[in-house]
Amino acid sequence: MCNINGCGHTPSDKPLPRATGEERRRFLKGMLALPLAVVLADPLLAQAAGSRTRQVELALGGGNKVQAQLAMPEGEGPFPAVVLIHEWWGLNDQIKAVAAELANLGFMALAVDLYKGRATDDPEEAMALMQQVDEAEAEETLVGWIDWLRRHQRCNGKVGTIGWCFGGGWSLNASIATPVDATIIYYGNVSRTPEQLARLRGPVLGHFGTLDQYMDEAMVGGFERAMSEAGKNDFQIYWYVADHAFANPTGARYDADDAALAWSRSVSFLHRHLD
User: Fold this and answer.
1) Which CATH class is domain 53-274?
2) Which residues are bridge partners to 112 per DSSP?
3) Which of 71, 92, 108, 210 is the Cys-Cys partner for 99 at CB 3.0 to 4.6 Å?
4) Where are the domains positioned within the chain?
5) What value does the mean pLDDT take over residues 132-152?
6) How far apart are CA 253 and CA 244, in angstroms?
């Protein structure tokens, strides 16, 4: 099930990407690269890819410490940077694996943790974790990590954000809270006032499904009008004949073609604005 706050977890009724036994073996030995969707759909492969990230820690105001997972490209840089914000499940292997893939593509990729080390595959627990998020603390966390990346000696000074569902809304929140160079939203809550959106300083890319009953055309249309009223014209919204969470290959609403197209558009957007 999905609702206004997030997406549930049910067995897929659509074909999911699969690796053969030999492909899995070679990937786990580092002898073969596989498409991102194949890696994300396989728990063992996602765990292996996610293990290529390393934990980093940041001290916030008041001495609070937060953790994230960092994936670095090969070479000395400087590199563009991307902050990844997880779905309502928490910072799991799938999000870490996406960070690893972005590092393969030349980005410093930082997967933040807004659940303080907790993650789940149970919808009720995911809902509870999401509702426990303190908005002021989450905003401070994201602003802190964006600043950390921008000041990193191997960063080129440009930082973007990307998030899915719960994280999609927070991708936008982070970009409102502090200047970033690119913002990507996958089917996240974008109900914002023109006054809030006036604080944006970089371009925005959004991916939404026409079958989504919650992050729907009425909500996104309101966002587009608010952006225009705020004088923000550097945004692009793409619609897919798909449902909520269509880009998640572990869920019931996964759509392979639309997910691949959205990902290619996202990567091109990041290169265009961060390189």
Assistant:
1) alpha beta
2) 68
3) 71
4) 53-274
5) 97
6) 7
